[in-house]
Structure formats: C-alpha cells, structure tokens
Amino acid sequence: MNTGNDAVVTSYAKASTLTITAGDVTYAYRELGPKGGIPVVFFVHLAANLDNWDPRIVDPIAKERHVIAFGNRGVGASTGTVPDTIETMAADAATFITALGLEEVDIFSFSLGGMIAQELVIRHPELVRRLILTGTGPAGGKGIDKVARTTYYDMLRATLTRSDPKEFLFFNRNSTGKRAARAFVERLEERTADRDTSVSVKAFRAQLEAIKRWGRSTPADLSTISQPTLIANGDHDRMVPSNLSEDLHRRIPGSELVIYPDSGHGGIFQYHDTFAPAFVEFLTR
C-alpha cells in the first residue's frame, strides 16, 4: 500500500498496488507518475493482470503524466465475477473511474481493453478526453469471434515449446519477432515484488465469451466519437486482424492510424521505442 512518501514513482516495477471498493467490487490498481492534470487510465488485454503492462511503454508516460492501471471486475486481484459482455465490462470500468473521483481521463487500451474503451467512450463520452486504441477492433468486426480458436491453438503451441503463449499470440514467428517476444516477456518479469493474482480459468473463459459476442454483435456508430483518437497495430495481427484497425480509422472521425511493419498483435511492444514517444506526443499536444 501507499506509504505516503512524497517522491514520485515513475517506474511501473516499483508502483504500489492499491485498492478501492465501489458497490460490491474491490478493484486493484497501480498508480505512478506526477499527480495533477488528467490521468491516463490503462485498459488491459485478454487473460492479463496488472503485471502484463510493458514497462517500456508505461514508464515514459509516467515521467510526464499520472498513470493508473487497473484490474476490472474479477480480473487478477480485483474481486467479483468477470462479466461475459463487453458492455458490462465498460460499465464496471466507468464505475472504477468515478469511484476514484475522476471527472475526465485519457484512455490507453490494448486488445480486449480497446473493445471496452470503445464501449465506454460511446456510453460516457464526458469521461474521456483522448483515446488510444491498439491491437483492437470494432463491434461486429470480421474475425474477432475467432479469437478463442487462435488463442487456444497458440496456447497449445506454447505448451509444447515451454514458452509463454504471448510469444505466439503477440509476435511473428520469424527471427525478428522471436527476439522481440523474448525481450517483451523478460520485461514483464522486471517487477519481482507485490505481483498480481493470476487470471483464473473461469475469468479467462468469460472474457473469451465476451469477445465472441462482441465480434458477432451489431456494429456501433463510431462516428459519434469526437475525442482525438490514436489507433495502432502491427501489420500481421493474427488475433484481431490488422484490417480492423484500418476500419476503426475510417469510422472514427479525425483519428490517426499507425501500422508497424513486420509485427503482429503486439506491434506496439515490439516497437516500444517508437510507439512510446508517439504516445507521449499524442497526449501532450
């Protein structure tokens, strides 16, 4: 828990884990960076807890901005049961944000987190100033409902090779991708103390069900999103097809799109040294 020290923590590996209770759910979260101004709230991906954020992306943001990463209902150390719809997940995210007393935030999201972020900004536009959507796609996006198939297949491949599934799910299996994958997984181990609770199998399955429903649902009217929006992905995303990032870009007015070459679902992690400065620049314009 927070000790009350005045020193500003800008290293995600050293950020304290905090909790806040809203209704019947206690949300676990970490915060770092200088307080004041509009915080950047991080929405995490499928099967991920607080330990799954790349410090090479979090830390550069935290040098400039107040960063908050949280586990939604039933994820990691957060209590409750993971919902099986994106809509309920977005409602829970809004509950967490307002429980902290925040009236306006910037959102950085990845994969499943990007689906939740889209739903939240449509339902609660007053809460969001700027929006970053990475490795994600819109409701009704072709291929999203196949995420479970791809995920289970790559989990099997990882088991057979004694690897982390993210090495297969997030990165190309060429020499460049394999190097980037190993480096990414090593960075996730930099935090050695106060690590989060693993995501349960029940929670993981509920998330997959929510993603399937999202992929098969009626497309939303994204033209209502007026917030400045940055969209990023790799050019060979097997989990959420890269063309869906282009679809988001076409449908969100004034949005910006960055596609990283020779990279997959985790393109922003492979290109963290390029993406992080672009992220900072987008937020501080």
SSE inventory with pairings:
Blueprint: E1 17-22, E2 25-32, E3 40-43, H1 55-62, E4 67-70, H2 86-99, E5 105-110, H3 112-123, E6 128-134, H4 147-160, H5 165-169, H6 175-188, H7 201-215, E7 229-234, H8 243-251, E8 256-260, H9 267-270, H10 272-284
Parallel strand pairs: 3-4, 3-5, 5-6, 6-7, 7-8
Antiparallel strand pairs: 1-2, 2-4
Helix pairs in contact: 1-10, 2-3
Strand content: 15-25%
How many separate helices?
10
Q: How many separate structural domains?
A: 1
Count all strands and give the number: 8
Question: What is the CATH C-level name?
Answer: Alpha Beta
Could you say what the CATH topology is called? Rossmann fold
Q: Please identify the oligomeric state.
A: single chain
Mean pLDDT: 96
Helical percent range?
25-40%
Structural class, from helix and strand content? alpha/beta
H and E order: EEEHEHEHEHHHHEHEHH
CATH superfamily: Alpha/Beta hydrolase fold, catalytic domain
Cross-sheet strand order for the largest sheet: 1-2-4-3-5-6-7-8
Largest pleated sheet = 8 strands, mixed
The 3D shape can be described as globular
Characterization of the model:
The protein has 285 residues and is α/β, with parallel strands linked by helices. The chain contains 10 helices and 8 strands. The chain has an 8-stranded mixed sheet with strand order 1-2-4-3-5-6-7-8, sandwiched between helices. Residues 1-5 have low confidence and may be disordered. It has helices at 55-62, 86-99, 112-123, 147-160, 165-169, 175-188, 201-215, 243-251, 267-270, 272-284; strands spanning 17-22, 25-32, 40-43, 67-70, 105-110, 128-134, 229-234, 256-260. The two termini are 33 Å apart. Helix 2 (86-99) crosses helix 3. It has a single domain (12-284), classed as Rossmann fold. Helices cover 38% and strands 16% of the residues.
